[in-house]
Input
Amino acid sequence: MKYERDRTWAEVSLDHLASNFQKLSEWTGPACDVLCVVKGNAYGHGAIEVSRELERVGCKILGVATLEEAMELREAGIRLPVLLLGPIPPSHTALAMENNLILPLIDEAYAREVSAAAVSAGRTLRAHLKIDTGMSRYGLPVSKDMDGCIAEALRIVQLPNMQVSGVFTHFAAAGDPYEDDFTRRQMGLFRIFSERMEAAGVKLIRHCANSPATIRFPQAHYDMIRTGTLLYGFNPFGRLELEPVMELKTRITQIKHLAPGDTVGYGRLFTCRRPTDIAIVPFGFVDGIHRSASNKAYMLVNGKPAKIVGKICMDLCFLDVTGIEDVAVGQIVTVFGWDHGVYQSAYALTDAYPGSAPELTAVLGTRVPRFYLRNQEVVACDQKE
Output
């Protein structure tokens, strides 16, 4: 089957992706690398094609969440170093080493297990220390016991068949100005840990800035930033002009002309109060939109906002297109992106949840094909014919 843009589809601009990467590289400066996070299928944009483009434009390292995500890249021929942001079962250590993957060392017990596996395989494992500065996720709990964690880290880096080259943490609330004191405390703990390790003779690549911290706390850039949402053009923080990488489109499949008193959809959650034109579009909750957007969010039809009415179904939803001119079956509807010179961001849709724009792109269903564009021309699609 040949996939066309005839139901619901995403358009991913490789030009915007490349531009965003270059702008982030310029923002951080030549002394700071940009680790591009492609976990979650590159936040729904398609990890393989996104990684290929990042490799082409000079990215030096990628980040994923799972071993499966890393292996997908390797099987597609992506050769860049890949940091796993979470641990893997120690039994898979040999596979990680064979594929040039960098593992996070979250505590001494885990480090000893993967070290033993590396010794058994007769190879050297690449790794970064993960420290917990207040997020309460993976890592040595430096916010609770700095001295103990320093001692533990020094034992870890001495384990056999281990090449520990970096240290990182993750911020809990770097995008929230009301939590800046907490973020600065996390930064302070990270700085102290790094300095004490260096004083003990262990110099490590330091990275702690996620996307919000990259924009709001330049002092946290250190040797490398880790950015996902910024890379894809999600930037509610300003200060850097980035382009949204994805647009999402669908088509009108039927138009209904309803009378006052007619109801729409499951549960009859919408009642027409006037003669109402309803357009049915094949984009439902299995495709990625949250059902709580029912009777709240809008899409664009001919550049005009059309409200989602009635309960969103698994495979479709209903738009009130009353008063919008020249509406026809087969017409393109913009879920987010550009439409007749009008732009609607993904945030405009997810604010109805409430949620965040990356949540929407990250959960786009597998039956929504991604078309990759360069100079407005399709150069790849993530689904086979």
